[in-house]
Amino acid sequence: MGSLSALERPLQYPIARRDDIIIDDYHGVKIADPYRWLEDPDDEEVKGFVQEQVKLTESVLQICDAREKLREKITKLFDHPRYYTPFKRGNKYFYFHNTGLQAQDVLYVQESLEGEPKVLLDPNGLSEDGTVSLNTLSLSEDAKYLAYGLSTSGSDWVTIKVMRVEDNIVEADTLNWVKFTGISWTHDSKGFFYSRYPAPKYVSTFLNELRWGCSLSRHNDIDRCFGEFNRLELLTALNFSYLSVSLLCREGENLDAGTETNANLYHELCYHFVGTDQSEDIQCWRDSENPKYMFGAGVTDDGKYLLLYISENCDPVNKVYFCDMSAFHDGLEGFKGGNALLPFIKLIDDFDAQYQEIANDDTVFTFLTNKDAPRYKVVRVDLKEPSSWIDVVPESENDVLESAFAVNGDKMIVCYLSDVKYVIQIRDLKTGSLLHQLPTDIGSVTGISARRRDSTVFIGFTSFLTPGIIYQCNLDSKVPDMKIFREISVPGFNRSEFQVNQVFVPSKDGTKIPMFIVAKKNIMLDGSHPCLLYAYGGFNISITPSFSVSRIVLTRHLGSVFCIANIRGGGEYGEEWHKAGSLARKQNCFDDFISAAEYLVSAGYTQPKKLCIEGGSNGGLLVGACINQRPDLFGCALAHVGVMDMLRFHKFTIGHAWTSDFGCSDNEEEFGWLFKYSPLHNVRRPWEQHPEQPSQYPSTMLLTADHDDRVVPLHSLKLLATMQYILCTSLKNSPQNNPIIGRIDCKAGHGAGRPTQKLIDEAADRYSFMAKMVDASWTE
């Protein structure tokens, strides 16, 4: 069985109102949604619910003995200088650096690698609490200008500014309502391409009297539950009858960007001229007939072509159009003030594969693609003969070709993922033939800084026991060597204290699932150790070895074993591995994770009451589903910013893009898949499911943040209210003694851009909760 409560007495949970008249009809299946009102972040009742949960969680954390010790140790280990891979633009070098506990990393510039570094952009001066972060940046070809995007409180919304590199002067340019964008300069340094959405609409609805089929008891449900607001006909379509309705719509006004939940639709590609107002930007591409399409663009290395990448969801597939900018008689200025879009030519006009440009020689383009190659390959095409494609680097039999960069004129540096370990090779750009394989340890490539015109490449590397190394590689050498350019040292960390193993665990259907296990050296496999098991399993994303201060502290001082299971749904073995954990086969992810947990118990690393599972975003969904399916197997669960309402996720912000991995409840067949595992809809009392054995849910912490506009907080809030009601407050003497709590952060988002102190505080909170719940003892 799972955990026996670490608390002396059951918690007194706040009572959340249940609106039992909210019932939805999904293809003839009636499903109640009593906490629909928690979907409105601006509602005073929702704010009250959040404050009560914050107080409850703090009361639990105050009795977690390891909290302050963890905060102290994590802070101490975090306090070390960190450097990131340098990159060259013009004749200058740029890199990020953090002295240790700075809230945000600082961007530096050097005239040469040996030159005196100068601060170019320090985000720490942009807010008192460090919650303004750098989201994206791009330097003009001559390094005259820096265009950079700032995010506030972790929101995906970005404001783009422009700085002169020579004197750090910030221009007046301010580009708002930018999201999911890159920045790509034209080579004349006059401006850049970027992507944005129309400003979100703020809607205020006043209803003097409202009645409809299943009756919404609060007017905010109308405001927040539907993707597009400014449509009176929506009321009629949903069988509303009303006496008076007043809709007040204002675009972008009075919004705390990142707290709204309406769907992100009608992405557009724009071009901004430096020194002009955003209202004068050229609208380069849009598609009003396909509001869910998203657009990204890149200028080729020769400055001649603009490539347009079009996607409609998170699947690794895209369309590719190109535009010959050298053919513009008046340059991009000729499109000012007009309504004409750029004259793109379609190279790939269907969503059957992914294409990413590596290099071009005039009209001859080299791409990385998964076309008929689920583990990816390198191909070439001449724009003059767009139907004739040739393979340059064929698909590997076993390894995934993760990335490829053109370097040193006629070469490319490629990265393979081989059983979740990186392999780096130098290949001939024209023929694809292997020239050199660079020596690397087991670990991950964190960044490659390389341009075709440069002979020097910088490679960032990390692993579970390697805080960070930046290698410098001279490709002019007959045999390129991996010279250490910078190495990150963490005072007080000794890698010889730990061991790392990789095992392959058979899942329910026999598929071998790789798992890394990090522990103190020479531990006894007697089942006595606390254990933290982490996984993601979605969206073709690979979880590879990386260094974590907080998990090192957990292992060293709390005796924990830390594990990463590379379950299906990720990209560790290519697109087939991804598809094996998507859509109708999503249950494979949960089976893989459960099998990994069972292995850790059977192999003697831990026991159920000492096993904690953790995951974020799609991994939060994973944790939510697994505690529903096997509550007996875990002692503790940490679910970060999880997608928990699988029937309504597509209605909020960018959720519609996730239907490629999950499906959509609007489709009857897909509704069947989703309803079976949706965390919100599958909370059951285990003591009623299995009355023959004492059982309850593991101690659970759901983590979310008020500015998470990727996976909006309503997912965690609704599941929190549901679990507390079904397992705890609905019964007079519930067997559920393990706490069910929510950590709800303020001025924070999905995770990116979080200041250092917030990272430390959250780690101390969640791991002290884990330590208390699995009865882990602190040792120095």
UniProtKB/TrEMBL annotation:
<dbReference type="Pfam" id="PF02897">
    <property type="entry name" value="Peptidase_S9_N"/>
</dbReference>
<keyword id="KW-0378">Hydrolase</keyword>
<dbReference type="GO" id="GO:0005829">
    <property type="term" value="C:cytosol"/>
</dbReference>
<feature type="domain" description="Peptidase S9 prolyl oligopeptidase catalytic">
    <location>
        <begin position="545"/>
        <end position="775"/>
    </location>
</feature>
<dbReference type="GO" id="GO:0004252">
    <property type="term" value="F:serine-type endopeptidase activity"/>
</dbReference>
<dbReference type="InterPro" id="IPR051167">
    <property type="entry name" value="Prolyl_oligopep/macrocyclase"/>
</dbReference>
<dbReference type="Pfam" id="PF00326">
    <property type="entry name" value="Peptidase_S9"/>
</dbReference>
<dbReference type="GO" id="GO:0070012">
    <property type="term" value="F:oligopeptidase activity"/>
</dbReference>
<dbReference type="GO" id="GO:0006508">
    <property type="term" value="P:proteolysis"/>
</dbReference>
<dbReference type="InterPro" id="IPR002471">
    <property type="entry name" value="Pept_S9_AS"/>
</dbReference>
<keyword id="KW-0645">Protease</keyword>
<dbReference type="InterPro" id="IPR001375">
    <property type="entry name" value="Peptidase_S9_cat"/>
</dbReference>
<keyword id="KW-0720">Serine protease</keyword>
<comment type="similarity">
    <text>Belongs to the peptidase S9A family.</text>
</comment>
<feature type="domain" description="Peptidase S9A N-terminal">
    <location>
        <begin position="14"/>
        <end position="205"/>
    </location>
</feature>
<protein>
    <recommendedName>
        <fullName>prolyl oligopeptidase</fullName>
        <ecNumber>3.4.21.26</ecNumber>
    </recommendedName>
</protein>
<feature type="domain" description="Peptidase S9A N-terminal">
    <location>
        <begin position="258"/>
        <end position="477"/>
    </location>
</feature>
<dbReference type="InterPro" id="IPR023302">
    <property type="entry name" value="Pept_S9A_N"/>
</dbReference>
